[in-house]
Each structure stands twice: as structure tokens, then as C-alpha cells.
Write a structure and sequence with these properties.
Elements lengths: L4 H10 L14 H12 L10 E6 L2 H7 L8 H4 L2 E8 L4 H15 L7 H12 L7 H22 L4 E3 L5 H7 L7 E9 L8
Antiparallel strand pairs: 1-2, 2-4, 3-4
Helix pairs in contact: 2-7, 5-6
Length: about 200
Amino acid sequence: MPTGPDTLLQALRWRYATKAFDASRRIDAPTWEALEQALVLTASSYGLQPWKFLVITDPAIRAELRPHSWNQSQITDCSHLVVLLKKRLVTAADADRLIAATAGERGLDPSLLEGYRKMIQVDLIDGPRSQVIGAWAANQVYIALGNLLTSAALLGVDTCAIEGFSPPDYDRILQLEGGDYQSCVPQTGRSGARNHP
């Protein structure tokens, strides 16, 4: 069901970077499930979705992350702490998985998508952009972040996207070092009183 222009604009005007969350307030399960699906359904270049999303609920981990987030209280006080991760590399296996999933979803023979797979190979795996794939993946993560912020606003959920954090420290604490993904942007949600500036 489409949302009208007035509803969208009202939600976007309502949204702001929440600086104080009420740690006792939680996002209810149906609303959180909708926000998770908004992340999963986010569009990306080529449809590759070079990201993962970690929802950090353990208070001890949040407390460990907070000093590496300019000691911002949102990290420990929010209802749901989402850390968005970007993929370090795009590989032939990633392209193959995308082609197989797309072919399966559409009921096609994967060979019909070989031209698309080659385009990904030439652009992101072997081409010049392969040298800056981390920046490309970070840009893709910001698409997901924007979608999450807009979706949350439409559902009346406060958020605060946080760039003031140390990615290497997050990677260490979240045991991402040397893995396929690295921290890009932590994002938080659920306020107490509306404290709009």
C-alpha cells in the first residue's frame, strides 16, 4: 500500500538525530521485524548487497563499544544497536551466488544471466573499481542506512546514525579482524521523550 506524499514528508520532518535514548524503552517485536526487513530489502548496485547487519543486544558488548564511540550514550541506551558492516572484497563467488539466487527467484536458466555476471566481473572484481571496492561497499551501506532511517521515521521510531566511532576498535571487539566484513556505521534506535532541538 503506497504512502502519500504528505505522510512521507511528515515522517521525514519528524525525524532527527536523537541524542538521548530512554534505556527502559524497547522497540516492540513487530516494529523491529519490519525494520529488519527494511534492511534486508534495501536496493544496492547490481543487487549484490555487500553488507551484513549486526544487532548488538549484549549490554557488556555495548559497554565495551561505547568508549570507542566518543563515549556517546546512545550506544548503551538505545533499544537496538545496529552495526552496519561493509564487505571488504567482492569475489567471483559473490557474483555466482547473486546469479544463482536471481535465476532461482525468476525461474531462469543461470546461463541467461551470464552477461550480467560478466559485467560484475569486469567492473567490480577485475576492473579499476576493484581497487576501491571498500569505498564502493561503504557507499552501498549508506543506501541501507538511509532506507533504515526513513523506514524508522515512517514507523515513529527515533534513530541516530553515528559516525563518531573507531572502526578498528569495533572490528576487534566484534571479532571481525581478518574476516570478510568490517564496521562501517553503527546505527541506534528508540528514544524516551522527544528532545528535538
